[in-house]
Amino acid sequence: MGSILPPTRSLRTLAEAPKLAISESEDDAEIRAKYRPFLLSPETEEKDWISELELDAAISIAEADLAKTGSRLKVLVLYGSLRKRSYSKLMAFEACRILHRLGCDVRLFNPSELPIRDSVPDTHRSVQELRSLSSWSDGHVWITPEQHGNLTAVFKNQIDWIPLATGSIRPTQGKHSSLPMAWKAFEDEGGDGDGTARLLKSGNRDRVVDCMEEFVKFTVVMRPLFEGFGDRFSERMERREKAESQGDGVGKS
Questions:
Q1: Residue 206 sits in which domain range?
Q2: 88 and 141 Cβ atoms separated by less than 8 Å
Q3: How far is CA 245 from the centre of its chain?
Q4: Are the C-beta atoms of 89 and 81 separated by less than 8 Å?
Q5: pLDDT in tens, 110-138
Q6: Packed helices 203-222 and 56-69: angle between N→C axes, nearest 10 degrees
Q7: What does pTM read for this prediction?
């Protein structure tokens, strides 16, 4: 398999690196307002730690993929807490900002109005919104607190509402990172839950950057193969049996 980077690629300075993030002028205003609450003001973003990250390898890959396909990577980010000061939400904001800088079309789903699985028909507005976002996306980023050694109910409820039968690609084990003692990892400011409290500099923060960078690289490589990976023997057999059953019923009273 050939390299997805030019063999003689040299490291560019921050000033030389392309600006891949979707600008306000090219963005859809409604989508920006609804799904990108993580965006910073231009003044803040210019001096922000994410803007100063050396991400040239991932940016080069994303830049080449965008030029080749004309399509940005579409990423759905889910978080698993409804608390006012939710650390998974704060972490989700930071992940979104990194992915945004890498040129992704990032959309953050708010689970606050999603009903409990099977408590309402799947025609419910929030259920349809989540399913539509999942179908739209090339990949998910999942961020959840640990509760009794497992996912939170808020997070699992979102996953449970996304049916495999609609053609979604099953999640596979990917790169994981944890944030020990999350309550100590963020600034005290912004404690009202509006997402302005920022992740403090640490090795854990560096690993969050690693995860987002590797997510972009992996998704660029895998995106052309999604259809093949979603083609499963058991589901082909199920479709065939259903078609044969319907065929047997044609013309019968």
A1: 29-248
A2: no
A3: 39
A4: yes
A5: 999 999 999 999 999 999 999 999 999 99
A6: 20
A7: 0.84
